[in-house]
Amino acid sequence: MNSDIKINDLRKVFKTDDKETVALENFSLDIREGELISIVGPSGCGKTTLLRMIAGLLEPTSGEVIIGDKKCEGPGPDRGMVFQEFALFPWRSVRRNVEFGLEIADVPKDERRERAMRYIRAVGLEGFEDHRVHELSGGMKQRVALARAMVTKPDVLLMDEPFGSLDAQTRNIMQMELLRIIEKTNSTIVFVTHSVDEAVFLSDRVVILTKRPASIKEIVDINLPRPRDRASEEFIKLRKHILQQLEDENVKLRADGNVLLDTD
Ligand SMILES: Nc1ncnc2c1ncn2[C@@H]1O[C@H](COP(=O)(O)OP(=O)(O)OP(=O)(O)O)[C@@H](O)[C@H]1O
Ligand SMILES: [Mg+2]
Questions:
Q1: How far is the CA of 189 from the centre of ligand 1 (A)?
Q2: Staple partner for 166: which of 101, 156, 171, 243, CB 3.0–4.6 Å?
Q3: Which numbered atom of ligand 1 lies nearest the CA of 51?
Q4: 3-state secondary structure 201-263
Q5: Spatial distance between the Cα atoms of 217 and 44, rounded to a whole number of angstroms
Q6: Under 8 Å CB-to-CB from 208, ≥6 apart: which residues?
Q7: Are 200 and 235 in contact (CB under 8 A)?
Q8: What is the full per-residue pLDDT of the chain (264 aa) written as tens digits?
């Protein structure tokens, strides 16, 4: 299936009793099949909102998301999502969390088990497959969420700060692992991160968002061969440029009276 993503003039307004929040505005972006796009932007600017609309979990106020040649009108098995807050089943074991999407797809039990174990190993959780999720650390939960999203081999993988609660070393390992896995699958990936280093390390393109309402400030092509050398001059230069762009947005946020923020 063709898994190009076309985002056309997307806008999202949240209405609560006493106020309206415009989360996203004038947002258009074409993502090629097999591409890894990172989204970076100030906290609260609308990144999760964008991912949820691509996932079909949230309806745009106006505009549209087209995946392949189909307008996105709800969630589907072609898209997997790793949520910022994990969204695991705490009472289920690690293995049964990872098997979840395969159960829904009616994959037979033996195959389910075998495929789940392959991804549990890939995220370094072998030996923990029978533990319940509430017994795990934050970083381990995050790895379960990752295995669960990848096990169904979705055409589109939407990842909301998937490595945010990992320690630096595990994070680097998971980044390498992600690149290794997607090399084989040709999944299209939209990856939200607060780490500019991570964005430059992983992505084909980095999309920098403005402060809320999020629109595109700049798209930076990362034309560096993989695996990337974080110490190389080009890497550092790109990283610096993106950080500067983000800092500009954060300065505007502070000028609005908001406190901010955490980019490395
Ligand atoms: N369900 C909702 N109802 C009302 N307002 C919402 C809802 N979801 C998000 N918002 C608002 O929309 C804006 C964007 O939120 P969003 O979660 O997309 O930000 P974000 O860029 O993912 O932030 P972070 O980097 O902190 O995760 C925020 O002002 C938030 O309060
Ligand atoms: Mg978010």
A1: 21
A2: 171
A3: 18
A4: HHCCEEEEECCCCECEEEEEECCCCCCCCCCCHHHHHHHHHHHHHHHHHHHHHHHCCCCCCCC
A5: 16
A6: 40, 41, 216, 217, 218, 219, 220, 242, 245, 246, 249
A7: yes
A8: 688 999 999 999 999 888 999 999 999 999 999 999 999 999 999 999 999 999 999 999 999 999 999 999 999 889 999 988 878 999 999 999 999 989 988 999 999 999 999 999 988 899 999 999 999 988 899 889 989 998 988 999 999 999 987 889 989 988 998 898 788 778 899 999 999 999 999 999 999 999 999 999 999 999 999 999 999 999 999 999 999 999 999 999 888 876 555 555
Region(s) of the chain under CATH 3.40.50.300? 1-78+156-264
122 CA to centre of ligand 2 in angstroms: 26
- Residue 56's identity, in one-letter code, is G
User: How close are the terminal C-alpha atoms of the chain, in Å?
Assistant: 37
Could you please state the CATH topology (level 3) that the domain comprising 1-78+156-264 is classified under.
Answer: Rossmann fold (3.40.50)
Q: For ligand 1, atom 7, which residue shows the shortest CA distance?
A: 14
Residue ID of nearest Cα to ligand 1 atom 6: 14
Residues with CB under 6 A from ligand 1: 14, 16, 21, 23, 41, 43-49, 84, 212
205 CA to middle of ligand 1, Å?
23
Structure tokens at 79: 């898209």
